[in-house]
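As a warm-up, study this chain.
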Amino acid sequence: MTYDYLKEKKLLLVDDEKDLLTMLVSILSEAGYHNIQTASTVKEALDICRKWQPQLAVLDVMLPDGDGFSLLKEIRRTQDFPVLFLTARGEDEDKFEGLGIGADDYMVKPFLPKELILRINGILRRCYKEETPLVHLAYCSIDFERAEIIREDGHLPLTAKEYELLSALSRNAGRIVTIDMLCEALWGDNPYGYENSLMAHIRRIREKIEQVPSQPESLITVKGLGYKLITKEGHK
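Now compare it with the structure written out below.
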């Protein structure tokens, strides 16, 4: 299972600052997004929406021929892709208006590039869920659609953290996933200090997926580095 499909989504960036658009394209490209178009006016943005059918838009509020709020209202008349406002207007009233007319998120300039990527990733994952086939392990299967482990003796539900942890490992099946990467997947942008909690989740997962939890065959510890999920051949 992989989230690489998100990187294929078509992103529209709308801002009248050319330098900012260039920077945004660079930030998103470095994060793996390459299917990007930009617009500097409401008219350009609507034209791209009609012809190109974007799957997410990042909108400024202040534009030379109108504003982002009116643009979003016009978009919503015919299309329903997710929208993130990225603007210098940080007053509560502006945030409430943006979210109230259907925006999925609202960020205020200046912004941290990493936060922007995390928010875009989060919106895309919520709005474009990938079909998730079973992931087959040595003694069980993971059903991400139902958030449960399927074993011969029955089904075991996954907690939210167990689900996120197994998702991160499954996306990198057969490869080492570092402790820092797993902590970030579970606890976000400030993952430090959660190593003991991570180990506790690993133990509970092994109790659900391994035949002998103390002798794991599917969820392997790579000493000093992290963990690796071993799936059956052909089911990575």
